[in-house]
Amino acid sequence: MAKTRELKPEDFSTYTVKKTNPALRVLAYIGLVFWALVNLFPIYWMFTFSLKNNEEIFGANVAGLPQHWLWSNYTSAMKTGHMATYFINSIIIAVATILITLLVSMMATYAMTRLVWKGRKTMNKFFMLGLTIPIHASIVPIYIQLSKMHMLNTYQALIVPYSAFSLAMAILICTGFMDEIPKDIDESAYIDGCGVWRTFFTMIVPLMKPAVATIGIYTFLQCWNELMFANIFNTNLKTLPVGIQALSGQYTTDWGPIGAALVVATFPTLLVYIFLSKRIQDSFIAGAVKG
């Protein structure tokens, strides 16, 4: 019978983790700090841009702090440029689009992945075709349909197309998450007397929080920054991108208020990402791990 040899610490020497060279760590930190500054500089430049006059913007003080902090640029943008009204319009359209997209995509995904019915795979493929259609390639047919339905220059003229074009990506994201939820949960809920609707809202939806955050940010960015649809379908209830475009004059332009309007339009996006970034990171981890 062969004798077993007792393992010694030196036998594991090849598996010991070597400490990182301090010089390499310092270089890595320097590189990361430099990369962070490169990414933060556009935000700094836009903020200082919004507090300058045309003379400083075009040569006298391009990248430095303002010599005279013109907070009046924000007053001009909000009152003269009507940015406050456009901001409210954008908020209404974005919130309504996000809610519709979340509700419809999660319900559709639940029906196609958890319920058994003929044609569910075909229906899923039909939804995925939406990923192949460029959003602005459908301007003419959508305009004709909205005109026939008397929906032009209303909130619905933007909410409906934005929700429709966000649906395919939202269903794709939801499918990846819902497949990871054990179907035993549904069966246990049915045994306890829950119907389809109660099982969906009380058991499935609470487990989909990372997917909700991901879809919410994706949909928000898509409809918040969109210009073409907003400029064509809704000329009365303007959104922020259309309002910022209107601030540019034909002969002379005061660029300070435009910078202020850009800050008003950009910072909500940054705040949304900051508050939901943890959920986004969780969604990447959940989508990467199976089993």
Account of the protein in words:
There is one protein chain. The protein has 291 residues and is mostly helical. Helices cover 68% and strands 0% of the residues. The protein has a domain at 81-246: Orthogonal Bundle (MetI-like fold). The chain starts with 21 loop residues before the first helix and ends with a helix.
- Mind telling me which CATH architecture of the domain at 81-246 this is? Orthogonal Bundle
Mean pLDDT: 83
Major beta-sheet overview = none
CATH class of the domain at 81-246: Mainly Alpha
Output the CATH homologous superfamily of the domain at 81-246.
Answer: MetI-like
Instruction: Point out poorly predicted stretches.
Output: none
The end-to-end distance, rounded to whole angstroms, is 41 Å
Determine the number of helices (DSSP H or I, runs of at least 4 residues): 13
Anisotropy-based shape: flat
SSE order: HHHHHHHHHHHHH
Task: Give the strand content.
Answer: under 5%
Number of DSSP E strands? 0
CATH topology of the domain at 81-246: MetI-like fold
What helical percentage do the residues reach? 55-70%
Q: What structural class do the secondary elements suggest?
A: mainly alpha
Query: Radius of gyration, rounded?
Result: 26 Å
